[in-house]
């Protein structure tokens, strides 16, 4: 069977077999065999192709890595763990978003602490002006999912109130071109803060607020699958989310 993923990725990016072969230093016929005969390249060539095309190695060759290799790579994606969100250094949030060159994503119920940070809002606006896609997902304050989360945390209607408060604080940012806001009505098991291939993932724990729950700092590496899991989740929520009234 031909490798349609590799063929399609080349077409999507307007690249030819010859161009890819030259850029990674292999013969054109070698690349043709990777596509037409679904040959699996040596590991160094898989990395080179994945890097050149900006996709994951496991997307192009799902069976190339053993479970043990994927597990080892995924473990290496974990940079550090903070026992509570309040233990994340304040400037760590700014440093995270400042690294973004393509995508910034925020998936929360309210994320009120973020909207209260004028420095973060400036970063979002500046990144959007520079061409970075900025997407912010907030919980629909009228949804049963937000009501349930408020009950779980023991804060009741305050959860919905925090979302409305965040929207007020984001008033100017919502007018910025390149910044997109949507409501979601998803049961969140984690809040996700993304800057390209780096994530801060705030776990949700029953009975306590997100501020007191652990945060994982993750960075995607070739062959790993931990970061991809959270990025895929973010995209699924985004696709099902709806524009915020008034935007």
From TrEMBL:
SUPFAM superfamilies: lambda repressor-like DNA-binding domains, Phospholipase D/nuclease. Gene3D superfamilies: lambda repressor-like DNA-binding domains. InterPro entries: Cro/C1-type_HTH, Lambda_DNA-bd_dom_sf. Coiled coil: none annotated. It comes from the Bacteria. Residues 6-60 form the HTH cro/C1-type domain. This is Helix-turn-helix transcriptional regulator. It comes from Actinomadura violacea.
């Amino acid at each position: 069977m031909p490798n349609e993923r590799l063929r399609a990725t080349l077409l999507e990016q307007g690249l030819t077999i010859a161009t890819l072969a030259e850029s990674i230093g292999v013969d054109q016929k070698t690349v043709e065999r990777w596509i037409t005969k679904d040959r699996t390249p040596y590991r160094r060539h898989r990395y080179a192709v994945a890097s050149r095309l900006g996709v994951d190695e496991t997307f192009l060759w799902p069976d190339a890595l053993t479970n043990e290799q994927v597990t080892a790579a995924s473990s290496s994606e974990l940079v550090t763990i903070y026992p509570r969100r309040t233990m994340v250094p304040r400037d760590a949030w700014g440093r995270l978003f400042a690294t973004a060159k393509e995508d910034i994503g925020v998936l929360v119920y309210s994320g009120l602490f973020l909207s209260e940070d004028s420095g973060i809002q400036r970063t979002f606006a500046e990144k959007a002006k520079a061409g970075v896609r900025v997407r912010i997902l907030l919980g629909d304050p009228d949804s049963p999912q937000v009501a349930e989360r408020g009950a779980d945390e023991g804060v009741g209607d305050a959860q919905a109130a925090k979302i409305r408060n965040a929207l007020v604080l984001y008033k100017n940012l919502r007018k910025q071109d390149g910044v997109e806001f949507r409501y979601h009505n998803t049961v969140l098991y984690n809040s996700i803060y993304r800057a390209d291939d780096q994530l801060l993932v705030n776990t949700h724990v029953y009975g306590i607020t997100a501020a007191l729950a652990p945060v994982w700092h993750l960075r995607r590496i070739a062959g790993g699958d931990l970061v991809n899991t959270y990025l895929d989740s973010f995209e699924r929520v985004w696709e099902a989310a709806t524009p915020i009234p008034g935007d």
